[in-house]
Amino acid sequence: MSNTTTRIIVSLIAAPIIIGLVILGGWWFWAFAQALAILALKELYDLGKHTSASPQRITGYVGSFAVGYYFMIADTAPQGLVSLMFPALMLLFVLAVLIIELLRNKPHPLWNAATTVFGVLYVGAFLTSLIGLRMTFSGRTLEMPVVAQFLSGLSPTERLATGDKWGAWLVFATFIGIWTCDSLAFFAGKAFGKHKLFPRVSPNKSWEGAVVGFLASSAAFVALAHYLLPFLPPVHAALIGALVGIIGQFGDLVESLFKRDAGVKDSSNIIPGHGGVYDRFDAAMFVAPLVYVYVNLFLLFSR
Questions:
Q1: Taking the CB of the first residue and of the last residue of the chain, which one, N or C, has fewer CB atoms within 10 A?
Q2: What is the pLDDT of residue 241?
């Protein structure tokens, strides 16, 4: 069986599972995103081993788990607690890493501590921000003027159900934008790519493919937002779509940079035909936190 056939079969199996978990939301999606983050973090730490780092794996996994829990409760916890929780978590985590590194007596302590902390900030926080994205409309955001106007006349239960639906659509639109960009950039690059995008890092990517991927991703997000996210004006949907189409490709290039430095082709072989979790969700790591921040700033400052 060819690698392409394996990729297609695995995608056809995985897609309904991911769709189901996004729709279920709540603790189901939380567990899914946490599992992705832990697996991707393990793969990043494995890359670190190839560069002589010895990251604190258990400490990193606990830190990533804590950040994922923060995103789960951020929209429903008291405002004062939320504003302090993330910096407090990061402070305690960094202190713990430094003290543990002092006691480990391993070579390259600076590189070990840096890799541990970087992994949690990059993989853990970036990837578990998908939880925050899914939970965006689960609490106080439903009272914000730009959202409340679409919920007037609904009962509290109906308001929560509508908010939960919007959170699912927001995750879907983000994923579909990323996957559209990835797929069409690949096929366009194969068909008529002539100008190398970043040959030092990823010699197979072309400017032609990148532009087609960006345009397709932006169009996909705008179209989905128009039908599924009525609170989001077209100009903001277009800006988010542009972020997805541009920044997602940077996520892929950054992972290629790290793999090239480590001297490996894939971050792991856990997903047949696709490589590792990090390989599959490298763009989502860059895109999800930006969409999360953009949407929350839009809700906060729009009237």
A1: C
A2: 92
Q: Is the entire prediction scored with pTM above 0.90?
A: yes
**pLDDT number for residue 187:** 84
Query: In the chain, which residues have pLDDT < 70?
Result: 1-4, 80, 303
CA-nearest of 108, 161, 117, 167 to 137 is 167
Residue 219: the pLDDT is 93
Domain range summary for the chain, segments of one domain joined by +: 3-301
Per-residue pLDDT at 61: 97
